[in-house]
Amino acid sequence: MTYIILTLSLVVIIGGVGFYLYNQNQATYVAPTKAPEPALTTTTSNSNVDETATTTTVRLAKESIGQSVNGNDIFAYHFGTGETELLFIGGTHGAYAANTITLSHELIAHFKANEKDIPDNITVTIIPVLNPDGLEKIAGTPDVIDDEGKYTFKVTSESEHAATIPGRFNANEVDLNRNFDCDWKETSTWQSRTVSGGEAPFSEPEAKALRTYVKKTDPTAVVVWFSAEGKVYPSSCNSKPSEDSVTLANTYGKASAYPVETIFNAYEVNGDMVNWLAKEGIPAISVLLPSHTNVSLPQNKLGVEAVVKLYAN
């Protein structure tokens, strides 16, 4: 009996010591700290760029920069990968200036076939149709591109062109080239007509989309095609044109054989896009094609190539 009691006592003592040591170990145990997850980064998918380079944006060859009143996309096409962006814009007046849209798409096709020739420091961006609703009014579709990427809506005579006047304006009946923040007025002039400049500067989604894009990318220079006069004008906002805008105008004009004028004074223009760009400190020019029907691709291609060369390293 004594032997059993001693054995049980020994078991109790050993168990107590073990329990004490276990609790001590638990009290002093510290779980290892988990290493922080590495920060996520994105890399550009363009094969011309170092794939190990870290960036926060991926620029697609074609992107929507916004939508029109009717919800049509406003597309921008990008060529090259340089930090110096040259922006070219057509179709501000929709179907009324359909030849500026045709010219834009001809140049898009050119750069697609010859992108390797763009200098390393240059990106060429083309917005072919800033006013897709104005094109849709007349052409029935905001894109009008065939399976081969060719632009198919054309105006072949001045009588046909007269029928496109409603297509000059967006779906709110606003002249988009009167909706920018330089000497803006609610009503402005186009030739002998009174036109709407919108309820306020940038009241129209198309103008807002371009403003957002320009603020985001800060292009080095901008060329905007209109029709029709066959001249080039540097931009200015309530002052003389900047030296850079004059240089840009002279470069395009000399290469394309278009006369260069100091200022457009045929009639008062308020809320002009190109003049707003001058207010933003961006060299910009208006290029007015010689007619409403002729694309004048060879001349304007020379002008575009001269501008690219001007800003190349």
Structural summary, described in words:
Helix content is 34%, strand content 16%. The protein has 313 residues and is of the alpha/beta class. Mean pLDDT is 84; it is low at 1-56.
Number of H/I helices: 8
Helix content: 25-40%
Q: What share of residues are in beta strands?
A: 15-25%
What is the typical, i.e. mean, pLDDT? Answer: 84
Number of domains: 1
Largest sheet: 7 strands, mixed
Radius of gyration: 32 Å
Question: Could you outline the blueprint of secondary structure elements for this entry?
Answer:
Layout: H1 2-28, E1 62-67, E2 73-80, E3 84-89, H2 98-113, E4 122-127, H3 132-139, H4 158-162, E5 187-190, E6 193-196, H5 205-217, E7 221-227, E8 231-234, H6 243-256, H7 273-279, E9 284-289, H8 297-311
Helix pairs in contact: 6-8
Key structural traits:
313 residues, alpha/beta, Aminopeptidase, 7-stranded mixed beta sheet, two-stranded antiparallel sheet, 8 helices, 9 strands, 34% helix, globular
Summarize the structure.
The chain is of the alpha/beta class and 313 residues long. It contains eight helices and nine strands.
